[in-house]
Design a protein that fits this description.
mainly alpha, 70% helix, disordered N terminus
Length: 188
């Protein structure tokens, strides 16, 4: 079975949650004294009016945030302004999902996101494409894939991951074709 859609889904969800949680993930951090080599903070007065509106909940504690965090939050507010209303609604939903996750699950998502960031760009692109393909599947097909993955033992999952990771692109194509043929036979 091709487990890539499940791996891609997990990676993409982690990516999305981290991308859209910039304003709240570290809001309670204290500000260390700036040291040479560290990025400079962003004074509230230098934020655009749009950024100030988006970041209004942080106004009182803005100067207490670490400089790197201020920069990340300011960039997030800028991205927010460039989103369509539909993208903003999706981001809000993902943010709420993120907030509802237990801390251990959030940490796993951060770790997976970091693993994704450490992949070569071509592998990142391949994962993004596979995720888009997975998302285009009918909901019942995605559910079927999730159930099949969950029904596997940890050893089976690990074997599949290793086999996939060690395969050449040609071998991966062959594995995909065999899996698709197997699925077609099972559907008839």
């Amino acid at each position: 079975m091709n487990t890539r859609p499940m791996l891609v889904a997990a990676a993409a969800l982690a990516f999305a949650w981290l991308l859209f949680t910039a304003p709240s993930s570290y809001a309670s951090e204290s500000t260390p004294a700036p040291q040479s080599g560290q990025p400079a903070g962003v004074p509230w007065s230098q934020l655009s009016p749009e950024q100030q509106r988006a970041l209004a909940p942080y106004r009182e504690r803005w100067s207490q945030l670490p400089p790197a965090r201020q920069q990340a939050i300011a960039r997030g507010a800028e991205r927010w302004q460039q989103m369509t209303p539909q993208q903003q609604a999706q981001a809000k939903q993902r943010f709420q999902q993120w907030q509802g996750m237990p801390p251990a699950e959030r940490q796993r998502a951060r770790e997976r996101y970091q693993q994704f960031r450490e992949l070569p760009p071509e592998d990142q692109q391949r994962l993004r494409e596979a995720y888009r393909k997975y998302q285009s599947l009918p909901p019942e097909r995605r559910e079927e894939l999730r159930e099949r993955w969950q029904d596997m033992t940890p050893e089976q999952r690990e074997r599949i991951k290793e086999r996939w990771q060690n395969a050449t692109p040609e071998q991966r194509e062959k594995m995909k074709r065999r899996w698709q043929q197997k699925q077609a036979r099972g559907a008839t």
